[in-house]
Write the structure tokens for this entry.
Amino acid sequence: MPYEILSHTADLRLKIQASSLKELFGEALLAVADVLSEKRKTGKPIIRKVSVSAQDKTSLLVDFLNEVLAMSQINKEVYTKVNFLDFSETRLEAEIEGFKVGGFDEDIKAITYHEAEIKQNKESQWETVLVFDI
């Protein structure tokens, strides 16, 4: 599993690792999907476009996940894959792929900036800690 659940008193805290920055964003998206709904649907996938700009890569990740979370809530969908059309450390355009759900297993209110800091570890893996306000 590319992420691990860390202890936190009230919210959900995850450490996410990946070999590239793009992959880190994809793994974080999958973590959101797993928390929202563990049930995976088959059939025709739903594809939506998302565009986000931010001042740095950490803010970009948090803003991207919150944008996807809002889309999930509005459309009653869970997104499990991302295809980046344009990607830099301060801007992204992507297609996200997902499926309809009847409801959510967990209600994520927001992905917070608390503890979030994207960095490379000693093994050159990209990593961050994300706190989900649930």
